[in-house]
Structure formats: structure tokens, C-alpha cells
Amino acid sequence: MTHNGWANYETWLFWSHMSNDGYWYEEMHRITKEHLEVEDAVSELGYALRDFMNDEIHVHTKCDLPIVFDMIEACFSEVRWREIAENLLDDYAPESEDEGALIIEFVTDESKSES
């Protein structure tokens, strides 16, 4: 089931939090830049983001209740990391020459009379 244009709620939730926090946003882009020239960049970046976040939740989650950590891991397991990677890589995709180009058709007196 999709959520706000994302594959699922968990992917949207992850993106909405990470893209609105300066530190996490910069970290995601730092990791993305490291994968720009990698073969199969989407998959490799997805794995790298997943592994990075898995390490981070272990560092930042201080809780004596195992169920809380299990619930966090369950949510993270539903994130579509490939979709996150594609979205990040789109920021670095070269624009085509025609993309965003303004096309102006000049109308001359001759072209008006041909109509």
C-alpha cells in the first residue's frame, strides 16, 4: 500500500524525518556521493543506507525494554531502501539539455497566412 507517493508508510516516515533533519540529510547525501560511480549504485546505496541506519539505531536507542528496540527494527525492515536510494541519486542525475528548456515558436506573418 502506498503512502504519500512512497512505497509504504515506513519508507515515507523514514524519508520525512531524515530529509527534515539537517544532520541526517547531510549524512544521507554524504553516503550517496560515495556511491555515485559504483556499479548498480541504486542497490549498493540502498544497502549502505540500511547498514548505516542500522548502526545508528543501535548507537542512539537507549532503552531497557527489548520490545521497543524490536519494534524499531521491525519498522526499519519495512523501509524500501532502494526507493530511498533512487530518490537521493535523482538529485545527482545530470539534466538533459532539453529538460526544462523553454521552447518558443515564433509566429511570422507567413506562417499565419498558411493556416
Task: Give the helices and strands, then pairings.
Elements: H1 9-18, H2 22-34, H3 41-60, H4 66-78, H5 81-90, H6 109-114
Helix pairs in contact: 3-5
| Biggest beta sheet summary | none
Task: Give the quaternary arrangement of the chains.
Answer: single chain
Total count of strands? 0
Low-confidence stretches: none
Structural class: mainly alpha
Approximate strand percentage: under 5%
Could you estimate the helical fraction of the residues in percent?
A: 55-70%
Question: What's the helix-strand series?
Answer: HHHHHH
What Rg is obtained from the alpha carbons, in whole angstroms? Answer: 21 Å
Report the principal-axis shape.
globular
**Mean model confidence by pLDDT:** 85
Distance between the termini: 50 Å
List keywords for this structure.
mainly alpha; 6 helices; 0% strand
Short description:
63% of the residues lie in helices and 0% in strands.
What this model shows, in words?
The protein is mostly helical. The protein has one domain. Helices cover 63% and strands 0% of the residues. The chain is built from six helices and no strands. It has helices spanning 9-18, 22-34, 41-60, 66-78, 81-90, 109-114. Helix 3 (41-60) packs across helix 5. It is globular, with a radius of gyration of 21 Å. The N and C termini lie far apart (50 Å). The model has no long low-confidence stretch (mean pLDDT 85).
